[in-house]
Amino acid sequence: MDGILYLTEERIAEYARIRSMLEIRGTPIGPNDMWIAAPALVEDALLISANTREFAQLPEVRVQNWLAV
Q: pLDDT tens digits, the chain, 69 residues: what are they?
């Protein structure tokens, strides 16, 4: 593994699912944040970010803010 998260069909589909869901709810987040969230969901990974407000729109994403410690 080279440490790079490549776009896969599964990650692209997850991005599309997230975007569609948030648009239907009327609670969109930035497109870059959706690209960050999609692989985290696909890989069931913990997402480390200080941007917890945006990711709060996606309760299925596990987020920790290490700067708030």
A: 688 888 999 999 999 999 999 999 999 999 999 999 999 999 999 999 999 999 999 999 999 999 986
The full DSSP string for 19-41 is HHHHHHHT----HHHHHHHHHHH
Question: What is the C-alpha to C-alpha distance for residues 56 and 54, in angstroms, rounded to an integer?
Answer: 5
How far, CA to CA in Å, does 28 sit from each of 5, 32, 55?
A: 23, 12, 10
What CA–CA distance (Å, rounded) separates 64 from 16? 24
| Bridging pattern class, strands 63-64 and 47-48 | parallel
pTM over 0.70: yes
Closest to 25 (Cα-Cα) out of 61, 63, 2, 56: 56
